Here is the input.
Amino acid sequence: MTYLIDAWLDRPQPYLRILNRETGEVCALLENEALDELREQGELDMQGLASSEPTVQKELVRNLFLFCYARALRPHTDPEYPQQRAAVWRL
Here is the structure.
């Protein structure tokens, strides 16, 4: 399975999506808080996002998925969290 990163980080409500390249299905969606956390950790690599090198892109997608899994495993106090988690990782 191959993935495509769709990132709009310079807009009022930034987001980063990981899409299944074949179907266009959204596999992961990172929004405001998650993107801020990635930036604070130094894990949001702008050069990696701009790279067309397959190994760089593969590593970036891998790290983004790992970040999503880690956030999904955290305990949440938001009552709407289970609904958001069911469709797409809305982080």
